[in-house]
Amino acid sequence: MSNLRSIEVNIETNSAWVQSGAILGEVYHAIWEKSKVHGFPAGVCPTVAVGGHFSGGGYGNMMRKFGLSVDHIVDAQIVDANGDLLDRKSMGEGLFWAIRGGGGASFGIVISYKIELVEVPETVTVFQVESNPDEGLADFVYRWQFVAPTTSNDLFMRTTRLEQGSNGTASFQVSIQALYLGKADDVVSLLSKDFPELGLKRQDCTEMSWIESVLWYASLNYRSSPKVLLDRKVVRSPNDTNSAKRKSDFVVNPVSREGLGDILKRVAGQLQFSMAFSPHGGEMSEIPASSSPFPHRAGNLYKIEYVGNWNEAGEKAERAVMTQLRRMYSFMAPLVSKNPRRAYVNYRDLDIGKMSHGKGYRSYEEGKVYGMKYFHGNFDRLVKVKTEVDPANFFRDEQSIPTLPMKL
């Protein structure tokens, strides 16, 4: 799909046609070339491709203000199992609904999407603040989980755990990385009331344009030319890892101070493992769970991303990291969503269920195991669409949407 990377931006209609092989950095750059006050609510990793990102929902740092990427898709082109090229009108609203967050490669090959652009201010503010390792980290994160999902919709504050080497030793810290769609003085004033424990000061903040914030979030030099976003290898640095595993959870009730303390103790010292908390609330709570296949809307405080990376070749290194991840995931079970325990489809996780080859990737019961976790109440609707548009199950993989049994 990487050769299908055309992007056509039309500022007069606040829209763009984006082919699935384009990467997010190319999309952001194309918008910036046309307008300095338009953007798009998608992910912070510029080399992630549009097709995969959109097909799973399109999570990003402006979602509290504008929702997900899929909430701004107004048309699409897809090749179905019959080889026909369809647009929104010819594919029908059922299939159009399914491809906006129902996971990739279950319904056809999406060639391109038409997206609605959003207006962004001329000046935005970013900051990254680390907690004091000598003070109560559990108290710090406990307070964050009440503020981050309820504060101004213009503010997105992501929390991560950091291990930073200092004089040959590792210091355990929690970092908050934030984007505010406005000026620095305003966010300092806001958080002095909402989150005084953060201790945010004006000198912690940097004002910049929205496109510069894209570079900043990608750990690139925000003062450099946005053309760097066109380099598909831009984020491959010597510090990047060769192998990775991700798992996910959603938190619906605040975790206690004691629970957070136990989490932090378990994470401390595990240099190849970390966690990141991304807040919901804002517009995410206003959009109905049934509006797209992505169901994790109102009632979810934040998403947890479990991150495991390793460079060493061989099963030993992989097994060590995977063991850490799975043990932590098991420990977290009482603290996160239940019945079903939910997961984010773009962090594909075969641990939570998969199709068996012997059944031809067609078992509804097997698909329901992981499908309910990814899509909750939207799963059966996805199955119905799948059965209608691809009854022979041509498009399939270990975690694709299954077809209904023939008797149904």
Automatic annotation (TrEMBL):
| SUPFAM superfamilies, per database record | FAD-binding/transporter-associated domain-like
Question: Domain FAD-binding PCMH-type spans what residues?
Answer: 1-120
Keyword match Transport: no
Write down the superkingdom of origin.
Eukaryota
Q: Name one Pfam family in it.
A: FAD_binding_4
Q: Which InterPro entries match?
A: BBE (IPR012951), FAD-bd_PCMH (IPR016166), FAD-bd_PCMH-like_sf (IPR036318), FAD-bd_PCMH_sub2 (IPR016169), Oxid_FAD_bind_N (IPR006094)
Q: Which keywords has UniProt assigned to this entry?
A: FAD, Flavoprotein, Glycoprotein, Signal
Q: Does the keyword Lipid metabolism apply?
A: no
Give the Gene Ontology MF terms in alphabetical order: FAD binding; oxidoreductase activity
**Transmembrane segments annotated in the record for this chain:** none
Spell out the PANTHER family in the cross-references: OS08G0158400 PROTEIN
Tell me the protein family, please: Belongs to the oxygen-dependent FAD-linked oxidoreductase family.
Q: What is this protein called?
A: FAD-binding PCMH-type domain-containing protein
